[in-house]
Write a structure and sequence with these properties.
The chain contains 22 helices and 23 strands. Strands 3-10-4-9-8-5-7-6 form an 8-stranded parallel beta sheet, with helices on one face. α5 packs across α6 (about 150-160), α5 crosses α13 (about 420-435) and α11 (about 360-385) runs antiparallel to α12 (about 390-400). The protein is elongated, with a radius of gyration of 32 Å.
Length: about 625
């Protein structure tokens, strides 16, 4: 049944509700298969994919990422299901598929998992009998995202599936109806209602520098000061960041070695270059480390097993590529940890900035209109050249402009068309990401609207600042400095082991206490950058050269205006790379200095100045 929503001006499918029995946690407890059409399972981790891999049907499951396939391949066969799965991705040939299908004959149903890109290969190999298979497009909401940078493979998938009736589009975070591809709007729409649904609790931390906050959390974890939530201590951190660059920055800033981290991202050449030779890209099924980093390739459908691991999400409003959709991306992340006894299974920690430098709604619409107009101009130019043999230049222009263009060349009709799916994706992402992180909708409100359990986390959110969100002056350098001072006072004979460790990790702290002392460090606010500048200034090597330079410009009995004296000091500082503010007061530490009024023969003004009364020692 289709009903009209007059407010939005779009047709919306009235869902067919499937009621889960009270107490049920997995689909296999009350279903033997998935219905055809669109299925909104609402819950991640409810075993929808497992249901189709373990039932008696021949099944082809289309997935957005290779990691999702590898995650499932590592789980089968097992003691509950002896079926062998077959993964189709780059490098797998038609002959390999034929061999697997033949091996299944009379032994087990065919269970194939394939990437979106490889589905045409699978369909072509299986041929006419594909009509007897159940086809599942898993995490189908990714069709919008993937359409932007893999438009040809997504177009081929959608077009290819149009001729089959035996298809299920599956997601826990479905595409809103108004943004659905046209090919899907004709399908029946199902929702599974879970009466005892566990709502995910988002523990939120707002900070001006989310990445630095995560680095601080990692360092504290290494020191044995571990995050505690609801009385349980976190042993492993699963850090979800949308970009490899973001993960790499955190790893480098925290000084993590390759054996301390597990990095799961797409295994492309560019990502390997970003991470460097020392850090290896791993599979989701590889052994966990204390610090585990996941980019978007692992957000959907993959399973993480950890008895005491916490999912941590980092997003910075000033770095758009790090931003995630609370209704989709973050909901998916929240369901990745599958270990039942994990106390953090239904908890996420979201570290985010207050707001970002993103477009307003008006600015977004203006820019989108400009891109649409540019696409229409390309279409007009193409149409005028059709038949002349020159239209190929416009076709090539389309290729060059991807992924920015909102038009595409359709070789079947030999025409350029407006890419409505891409425009829908852009609008959807603006509504669910930009408007949230720019303050159009608060992070808290966005969670509430998406159905998260925000009440229980509020007390912790207020208290976490006292423990983790340290004041700006209380940096790690600050705390190490205070600890070092305390350790020095504990022993008048030798240094404690902790003091030695701090000296080894932060040599600057030892130099600072030797050259500046506790009082001066406190005056400098334990600011590491300021301390570093003053340590360099106070070093004997610097002082020797500085005194020599000063003696070349300031002479006993000579008078200098304050401006002249300050300029001379500034030139010396610049020459010696001393990054302190020059002033005449500074000279008091080297010379005898007396304040005077200086008169000039051609002026009646008396100008403030100094006289050198004692030479430099």
């Amino acid at each position: 049944m289709i009903e009209k929503n007059h407010d939005e001006g779009v047709e919306m499918e009235t869902p067919i509700i499937i009621e889960a029995p009270v107490g049920a946690e997995y689909l296999r407890q009350f279903m033997d298969t998935l219905p055809l059409g669109i299925v909104n399972k609402k819950e991640t981790g409810c075993g929808a994919t497992s249901l189709m891999l373990e039932n008696n049907e021949n099944v082809i499951i289309c997935c957005p990422t290779i990691q999702l396939i590898k995650s499932k391949l590592s789980q089968y066969p097992n003691r509950d299901c002896l079926y062998h799965l077959f993964g189709v991705m780059k490098g797998v040939s038609e002959k390999d598929i034929e061999t697997y299908v033949e091996r299944c004959r009379g032994r087990q149903p065919v269970k194939i998992m394939t990437t979106y890109d490889s589905f045409p290969k699978v369909a072509g190999t299986i041929g006419d009998v594909l009509k007897d298979f159940k086809i599942v497009v898993d995490e189908y909401q990714e069709l919008l995202d993937a359409r932007v940078y893999r438009w040809k493979s997504i177009q081929n998938l959608l077009y290819g599936l149009r001729e089959y009736e035996n298809v299920t589009y599956l997601s826990a975070t479905p595409i809103p109806y108004k943004y659905l591809p046209n090919e899907l709007k004709r399908l029946s729409y199902y929702e599974i209602n879970w009466p005892n649904r566990t709502r995910v609790k988002p523990y939120r931390v707002q900070t001006d520098s989310p990445f630095s906050w995560i680095v601080e959390m990692i360092r504290m974890h290494q020191e044995g000061i571990r995050m505690k939530i609801e009385g349980y201590e976190v042993e492993e951190l699963f850090i979800f960041v949308n970009t490899v660059k973001g993960a790499n920055k955190i790893i480098n800033d925290a000084g993590l070695s390759p054996d301390e981290v597990k990095i799961v991202c797409a295994k492309g050449v560019i990502n390997k270059l970003k991470l460097g030779k020392e850090y290896k890209i791993q599979d989701i099924s590889d052994e966990n480390k204390t610090f585990n980093f996941y980019t978007k390739t692992a957000f959907y459908g993959t399973d993480i097993y950890s008895k005491s691991g916490l999912a941590v999400i980092v997003s910075d409003g000033y770095v758009k590529s790090t931003l995630l959709d609370i209704t989709s991306d973050i909901q998916q992340i929240a369901g990745r940890i599958r270990t039942e006894e994990n106390p953090f299974k239904n908890i996420i920690l979201h570290v985010h900035s207050p707001k970002g430098k993103l477009l307003s709604h008006e600015e977004f619409e203006v820019k989108l209109a400009e891109r649409i107009m540019k696409a229409k101009n390309d279409i007009d130019a193409f149409n005028k050249l059709v038949g002349s043999g020159l239209e190929s230049s416009i076709i090539e222009k389309q290729k060059v402009n991807e992924p920015e263009a909102v038009s595409y060349y359709d070789p079947d009709s030999h025409s350029i068309k407006i890419d409505e799916l891409k425009i829908a994706h852009m609008r959807h992402k603006f509504e669910t990401i930009d408007s949230v992180y720019t303050g159009g909708v608060s992070i808290e409100k966005a969670y509430e609207m998406a159905g998260y359990n925000i009440e229980e986390a509020e007390t912790w959110i207020q208290n976490v600042g006292k423990r983790m969100n340290r004041p700006k002056s209380k940096t790690l350098f600050h705390e190490y400095s205070l600890t070092y001072s305390e350790e020095r006072e504990k022993s008048s004979i030798g240094k404690t082991e902790l003091a030695k460790e701090i000296e080894q990790r932060y040599p600057l702290i030892h130099q600072a206490y030797f050259l500046l002392g506790d009082i001066r460090l406190k005056q400098l606010g334990y600011d590491e950058e300021k301390v570093r500048k003053w340590v360099y200034f106070k070093m004997s090597e610097t002082q020797v050269v500085l005194k020599r330079e000063l003696s070349n410009f300031f002479f006993l009995g000579k008078r200098y205006t304050n401006k002249n004296a300050k300029d001379i000091v500034g030139q010396i500082f610049e020459k010696l790379r001393i990054e302190l503010t020059p002033s005449t007061k500074f000279l008091n530490s080297y010379f005898g200095v007396k304040k005077v009024k200086i008169c000039f023969p051609d002026s009646y003004k008396r100008i403030d100045g100094i006289e050198i009364t004692r030479g430099i020692e």
